Automatic annotation (TrEMBL):
Protein name: TetR/AcrR family transcriptional regulator
Entry-linked Pfam families: TetR_C_7, TetR_N
Keyword annotations of the record: DNA-binding
Listed PANTHER family: HTH-TYPE TRANSCRIPTIONAL DUAL REGULATOR CECR, HTH-TYPE TRANSCRIPTIONAL REGULATOR RUTR
Organism: Streptomyces bangladeshensis
Keyword set includes DNA-binding: yes
């Protein structure tokens, strides 16, 4: 397998000067705003360089792969931030060593749904990128899509699957033999309607409506998966 962009950046920390690394991060930060506004296909290298206050030659010096490499860098960087926040919130609500009391299961799953939903506001730049990734999947290079999944959705999905398995082991859920599918259903039920209505947080819903949808998603999940 080829080296991922995330590992390439980690290696670069040991190979480039702090000044050069600082410049790379400044370019990536400016690019995040441009990609979030324009999407991948519409963002030009000239616009990306201008936003970072550098020449296109300087941009290519730092990112020889041009726009594709820069987009991959931004997506994996922001995905890693969201992943870490999501895992922290998951473990805070469903601690691996403290399964909830049966009477508290719905309350805790609603708390988890709220915590996950809050990420859209806390990491708005990242979810702007995700919105464009879904809209432009046929234009985004496959290696970028792969890097995004490996940096964020896949590890979070595995952690949520493990959490659901622990709840089943504690006698709280019955996952019908497929914890990964159950974890996917939980995510879809608490997020899909809100994502559609808000376009990944661009047009936020009133808080009571958001809470109603989150609770409804958890309720539907428990109707399908609560242990008898």
């Amino acid at each position: 397998m080829g080296e991922t962009n995330e590992s390439r950046l980690e290696r670069a920390r040991h190979e480039v000067s702090p000044r050069k690394l600082q410049k790379q991060m400044a370019i990536a930060s400016a690019a995040c705003t441009v990609f979030g506004r324009e999407g991948y296909a519409r963002a030009s290298v000239d616009a990306l360089a201008a936003a970072a206050g550098v020449s296109t030659r300087t941009l290519y010096n730092h990112f020889p792969g041009g726009k594709a490499q820069l987009f991959q860098t931004v997506v994996t960087w922001t995905s890693s931030e969201v992943r870490d926040a999501q895992l922290a919130r998951l473990h805070a609500v469903l601690h691996p060593e403290r399964p909830p009391h049966p009477d508290d299961l719905e309350r805790d799953l609603v708390s988890l749904a709220r915590a996950f939903h809050g990420l859209m506001a806390d990491y708005a730049n990242h979810f702007a990128l995700v919105r464009h990734i879904h809209a432009e999947a046929d234009h985004v290079p496959p290696e970028v899509l792969k890097a995004w999944h490996e940096a964020g959705p896949e590890p979070v999905g595995r952690a949520l699957t493990e959490a659901m398995t622990r709840l089943e082991d504690a006698g709280l859920l019955h996952l019908h033999g497929d914890a990964a599918v159950a974890a996917g259903h939980f995510t879809a039920l608490i997020s899909h309607r809100i994502i559609q209505a808000t376009h990944y947080g661009v047009l936020p819903l009133p808080e009571p409506e958001t809470d109603r949808l989150l609770r409804a998603g958890v309720s539907a999940f428990l109707r399908a998966y609560r242990a008898p």
